[in-house]
Structures are given as C-alpha cells and as structure tokens.
C-alpha cells in the first residue's frame, strides 16, 4: 500500500456513488454509546468570580489594577466592560436543571435512534458541556454510527432523512 509523508497507512474506500478515494486509516477509541458523560469538575466553575486583573508596572506602586498593556486611564473603561460581560453571563448562565433536561433529551433520542442504528452513539457537545452555554443555548449533539467517515454530501443526508422519518413516526 502507498504511504504518505507521515507514514500513515492509506486505504481505498468506495462510497455509495462508486467514487474511490484514498484517506489515512485512523485508529481511535470511541467511548461506548451507553457510557455516562464525563464527570463535571470539582467545584462549579460558575461559582468563581471574574478573573483578577493583573497589575501593570505603571500602576503597581499605586496598587491599582489594569489590563496588561493598557494605559492607567483606560482601567475604568475596561473594568466596566469586564463587569458588564460578567453580569450578562451570570444573568443568562446555563443552569444545572437545564443541563439535566438536555441530557434526558439526549437519552430519549438515543433510545429512539437505537431502533434503526443499534450500535450508534449520541453525544452532547458544544457550549452545553463547556460551561459557556446560556439559558437560551441549543443542545448540539453528535451522532456516531461507525468509525468510518461519512460522505457529507450523500450519506449524511440519507441518514438524517431516515432519522427524521423515525421521529415523525414516533411523534417526538
């Protein structure tokens, strides 16, 4: 078999449209579909306050805090922006209850999907798990059917249409 510059093995893959394409063979270990999400870090990150400003050499003697590289007179402007951002985040932050509801949705959807894809995995990704979600954030999910790549133009659309028909049939 041919090898690329990084010495990964290449193999030919035939897609539904008959097109052959070479791609690196990827060896990765995926978590089991029934595996629980990773535990949340000890101490909720949302409980922490805004990061402490770093004293600059210009204002270190006075004890004032300022954004690194900013002139001392800009301190009030950046402190106001930082406070406004923090207040906006705190007012709209993702609640634990909302996260639990999203995880329940994932579980119910995964149970339905296993009817047509018995070995599939469904994972919540994005802001819901990073802690940057808000109370109006969507629930991004990743559906894994196999370790092989999916042709986004043809196979992905066929799979999503199949899922849509299943959900329409079940009324959920």
TrEMBL record:
Pfam families: MTPAP-like_central. GO terms for biological process: RNA 3'-end processing. It comes from the Eukaryota. InterPro entries: MTPAP-like_central, NT_sf. Residues 1-72 are annotated as: Disordered. Residues 82-169 form the Poly(A) RNA polymerase mitochondrial-like central palm domain. GO terms for molecular function: poly(A) RNA polymerase activity. PANTHER family: POLY A POLYMERASE CID PAP -RELATED, POLY(A) RNA POLYMERASE GLD2. This is Poly(A) RNA polymerase mitochondrial-like central palm domain-containing protein. It comes from Amblyomma americanum.
